[in-house]
Amino acid sequence: MIEIFLAFIGSICPGVIYNVEKRNLMWVGYCGMLGWIAYRAFNEITGSLVLASFFGAVVVGIYSESVARLLKHLPQYFQYRELFLWCRE
């Protein structure tokens, strides 16, 4: 549970640095949180870091595309900040 919260906060922090609008910070945080949940879940299921990273990135991509269409922004607005989370593993 703590990892999920830290993934949320860890996604919001680069959003603040890159001047994401305040109303969109929650969406950015949710994207990072969902990506981390998918990464950890697939890592537990498969035991492979490569497959877990792939499926986590797929979840981030699908989420960012759908939220970008909903909020009428570019998908990269939500996407790139979350992919930094897996660089530390």
UniProtKB/TrEMBL annotation:
Membrane topology value: Multi-pass membrane protein
Pfam families: ThrE_2
Entry's transmembrane regions: 48-71
One annotated Gene Ontology cellular component of this protein: plasma membrane
Keyword Zinc in annotation: no
Annotated compartments: Cell membrane
Keywords for the protein's UniProt record, in alphabetical order: Cell inner membrane, Cell membrane, Membrane, Transmembrane, Transmembrane helix
Domain Threonine/Serine exporter ThrE residue range list: 4-73
Name used for this protein in its record: Threonine/Serine exporter ThrE domain-containing protein
Lineage, highest ranks first: Bacteria, Bacillati, Bacillota, Clostridia, Eubacteriales
